[in-house]
Design a protein that fits this description.
The structure is a homotrimer. Chain A is mostly beta strands. Chain A contains six helices and 21 strands. Chain A is 12% helix and 32% strand.
Chain lengths: 345, 345, 345
């Protein structure tokens, strides 16, 4: 690919996507916000829908489904009543990782916990703080970067639903956990990111110094390695080190497989400055095929070094008439979800 | 797959398999049992045998080989003299991960440490507790979830032996480690679990509140992601958190590759109740092909919610004459061990 | 493969390779050396070159490029000015993991930070110790086992450069980190180790009791599992446990994917004695194809149990005239870099 086609492709990521769905107030200055104690009841309605381009998504309102589905953010002790409304013509479900639910909320055909076309069902998800058991041992808490997905469409493991976009992030925080300014979700689903066409992001925008959180989920058939340029994280529950003597590895590249999820927070541009920082799958033929996006960090003047130049060049090319906007976006879901890729394992 | 065929397949896992081979006494009430100090000499004889269906296995008695082989459970400080009796017509060996042994016990052709047909050889495995070296640094202990396998049959890396079932679990405990009521072994070997036919488990049974341990081993050519419904574990040495401030991730899904092993304990149904909880590879085409089993947690009345209904339905179908018991079990080892799958990596 | 061809292949690893490029003085007796405080400016020139056999490498001197490239060893607080001289006929670059650099040093086409044929460019890499931020949170330090690689040759992700050998290790130490006697680099690059022909190592030599460090990097398209016989490490930042209560898993097998890197130190032969200890990818068809080498641990007399016998046998075979030295070495890069393997994922 020559530089100009490369530029065009990267720019197809377009306007940075704001995927934070947390209702939490924004931080002011450097005052640190932390998670309050849990114990709330949360009532959420999710609509499972077919999108016009063939994808499937979950949404908080009818006709507003997205891929990935909305972020559900809880604190240990919270309970979520998630009512799934299935507007599609196939049975779908909601299976969540990491949270507490009875077998009747498992979202599997085996447990008869799907939702038929036109039906609704309420899944009850509970969470709990760490605690000591009667036998003196420690029970782990629910805190973590988790996810929900269909477990019924296309196969007994939801292969068709997941392939088409029926997945989303769940974060369970522990009281005192540091809250980010913004949360973004990146799902490596077969050879797509978030079921988007290749070479089209998503791109995420931040100001220098923002505390930004990423939730990284994997689905499909393939393993991947998630790499981010210029930013690193600790390979633990929160991505944040407990202190200078914490022996946890700090990484910027991590192997992941279907069903895996993790998350971390970064200070945008910390120690490296503003810029258009790439993130991508580091499996070479995956990145070459377009599993790549940009973390756009603006400097104090609101400019994004290296990115602005691409945008100007991109604009110039468009005026010259050699632009092809359809190159990436027009491919829709077909290539984006990696079907027919013929990859082995 | 329609629901009835799905049910039949899952039920082929049949009676739950008790794979605990530990001689440890069962816990009474909530009294916690912990590992005693090591230092014992353990003498074990393992027979490498061909099973009638073409599989190969290790067993503690002649004619009693199983796949996986028997659990060998040690405490740091113990030494095991493992005599391998090779009843097969090909040279086989015993290679163990994680333990201390001289190069003459390596189980490789390179080190001339295999056992010819009809021969015997004693492998000496030592273990040690953590300790301080002369230079002041800490030496790690042997404690961990390890495994043994053939390193000679079919190739210099035992590809044929491992493919056919010559593998088993080794647990080395640290004094004070919490002991489970029961230990089960799950081996993802190519696209089989424990070299069983697809869609046939194994299933494992427990009573609500039992402390159950799983050892998870991977073999073959493929990566997998091990997922369990309704249960989680800490991604550390024991799977048990050290306390409420432990920063270790709690997970219910983990990417694994050949030679990997890990383990954890769960309290059956804790916070989620009884039920037929699935575990499976989360790689979509692996789960769809049948890399799935059930963790059957009985309630106080001895019933397993959702499972009993399947059994009744299953029984009804059998009476109706549309049952085909051979569907899964008749396929033997051929499909179970993933040969000829044509998967790439 | 019969034993004799196996022996010949393993011996093609030949004389053990000393890959340590650290200028640190050797330890005397058991006195422990630790990393001094950082803050130095390091000026390094790297030459990107085409080797006569088609491989590409980085070197510290013109005409001396190696695969992997030289170890760059820093301490937190150090800054490296790395001048890249591109002697090749294609644009190449230097992209580093884990360190601090501005977007103009990213080594990507997107950021215009490559080096044209015949050109030079200085990449500035900074490192930092852990510290407390203004908001009271801990910022992680730069310490870790990292790596650098081309990001331009053959694709926008350097697929051609990396495939051909443009990669090398970077270690950033924390003040007080234990220093090894010697550091070796093992790169699983597609189905080669260090772009060598199959079944040809590299082999590494040590005396019993030496503190030896391994940096393990993965590149290409495939996942692997790195396994070492007779030696283990903690799965944390340094590979060394913090103490007897450290809950970090101790492992001898680890799944890795492209872009991953980790490292660890072992005491050669500790608890297991001298010998020719294999290390290999545990993915069965990768090890069978030759992703294997030897860690040769000499005893007090300078002999390597099991290895000497192979050498004598090897020598005898050579005298018998049935030797084919070209079997492995003559294949050059073609097979070594795994091209045309037709492997899926």
């Amino acid at each position: 690919m020559d530089r100009r086609s490369f530029n065009r492709r990267m720019l197809l990521g377009g306007a940075a996507v704001a995927t934070s769905l947390s209702a939490a107030p924004e931080a002011v200055g450097t005052s640190l916000r932390t998670a309050p104690a849990g114990g709330r009841i949360r009532r959420i309605t999710l609509y499972a829908e077919k999108l016009s381009d063939g994808r499937m998504g979950y949404g908080l309102q009818r006709g507003k489904a997205t891929v990935p589905g909305p972020l559900i953010e809880l604190t240990e002790g919270d309970t979520a009543y998630v009512q799934l409304v299935n507007t599609m013509d196939v049975t779908a479900s909601l299976h969540v990782h990491g949270l507490d639910y009875t077998i009747y909320q498992d979202g599997t055909r085996w447990s008869w916990s799907g939702v038929q076309p036109g039906g609704t069902r309420t899944y009850i998800w509970r969470t709990h703080a760490p605690g000591r058991r009667a036998d003196g041992t420690w029970r782990e808490g629910s805190a973590g970067y988790w996810h929900y997905h269909d477990h019924m469409v296309g196969s007994d493991h939801g292969t068709g639903g997941v392939r088409n976009g029926l997945y989303g992030p769940v974060i369970v925080r522990r009281v005192g956990d540091i809250l980010p300014l913004r949360t973004h979700t990146i799902v490596f689903n077969n050879t797509s990111i978030n079921n988007r066409p290749p070479h089209s992001g998503p791109n995420f925008q931040a100001a220098l110094g923002d505390r930004v959180e990423f939730v990284m989920i994997t689905h499909g058939d393939f393993y991947h390695t998630f790499h981010m340029h210029g930013h690193r994280w600790a390979n633990n529950r929160t991505g944040i080190l407990a202190g200078p003597h914490d022996t946890c590895p700090v990484i910027d590249n991590r192997i992941v497989g279907p069903g895996d999820s993790f998350g971390f927070q970064v200070i945008a541009g910390e120690g490296v400055g503003a810029g258009a920082w790439m993130y991508h799958c580091h499996v070479q033929h995956h990145s070459d095929k377009g599993m790549t996006g940009l973390f756009l960090v603006k400097d104090r003047n609101g400019t994004i070094p290296t990115y602005e130049m691409h945008q100007r060049e991109h604009q110039q090319q468009s005026q010259d008439g050699d632009e092809d906007e359809g190159e990436g976006n027009g491919e829709g879901n077909g290539e984006g979800n990696g079907e027919g890729e013929g990859e082995g394992e």
